[in-house]
Structures are given as structure tokens and as C-alpha cells.
Amino acid sequence: MAAKLITGLSDILRFILYEGSNAVVPLSKELQMIRDYIDLEKVRYGNRLELHLDLPDDTEDLYITPLLLLPLVENSFKHGASSMLDQPWINMRVSLHNNRMQLKLVNGKASISQPLKSSGIGIQNVKTRLALLYPGKHEFNITNEEEVFILNMKIELEKKPKMAVVKNISPVVENLQKQV
Description:
The radius of gyration is 17 Å and the shape is globular. The chain has five helices and eight strands, in the order αβαββαββαβββα. The strands form two sheets. Strands 2-4-5-7-6 form a five-stranded mixed beta sheet, with helices on one face. The chain has a three-stranded antiparallel beta sheet with strand order 1-3-8. A hairpin with a 2-residue loop joins β4 (89-97) and β5 (100-108). The protein has one domain: 2-Layer Sandwich (Heat Shock Protein 90). The chain is an alpha+beta fold. The chain has helices at residues 2-19, 27-45, 70-80, 121-133, 171-179; strands at 25-26, 50-54, 62-64, 89-97, 100-108, 138-144, 148-156, 158-159.
């Protein structure tokens, strides 16, 4: 069990270090990192978590800005599942239609009256990144009901040739990669 957790965490950290500074990454890699993160959370919650995950196997050579999905998934665990006392649940579906990706993320949340807070930094950062990197090519909607949080996001992604690698590496990261 411990070896599996360390391997999963290692895979996530490797993705963040080596792929996080790229301008875009294959959607398949981004989704694999999400699977790795969810696998770690499943260990944390055990049988208490009801999880429905529907991710495409064939991502049709689509590319996405790295680490765009992680704050949204992390948010569903942090503010949804972890705050629920009884049976936490999360539904995540990613579908592809040509070069358009749609993410629907739904999680239950405690119905306890809590002071109204503005969106956390994670969601705000995703909104800002979408506006800067996908202007006119995205939709982002949140429905925050008493017991359910619903996030719908659509992004028009680009296809890149399999051999193309787009990098935007900072000198610090580049030096670290050379040392490894």
C-alpha cells in the first residue's frame, strides 16, 4: 500500500516538474495525472467515497494547457467530499467532440449553513488561465446549490502532430532537468 502511494505521488510530482512548464501537453498525460491524483484520494477515503469517473481513453492527439484540470478536481475533494459527514460522492465526466473537450464535475457538499465565501484561489486561477490562454474558445459555468456543486467547462483544444513538443521552460526548471 505504501509503495503504491509513493509511486502515485511520485508520478504526480514528476508531471508537475517536467510537464507543468510546457505551454501545452497531450490531453492523455493531463488525464493520467488526474487519474493518479484520484487514486491517491481513493486510498484516503476508502469505501466511504462514491466515485463515478468517465474519462476518454482515446484523446485524439489533443493538447491542453498543463495543470488546468487539477485545481478543479482537487476542489471537489477539498470542499465537497472532505466536508461531508455521511457518504461523500463525486461524479466526473470528460467527453470529446472533435476538438472540443467538455468537463462536468459534480460533487455533494454538506448542507450546513456556512458563511458565504468567494471562490477559492484554485477556481479563480483556472478562470484567469482560461481567459488568457483560450480567449473565445471556452465556457466555464458553476452552479452552487445547497447540497450540490456543479462545474461545467468546455474548451476548444488544438491538435498537434505526435512528434511536436511545445516547451516554455524557465531557466531554473531547465537546469534542474539537466541535473536529473
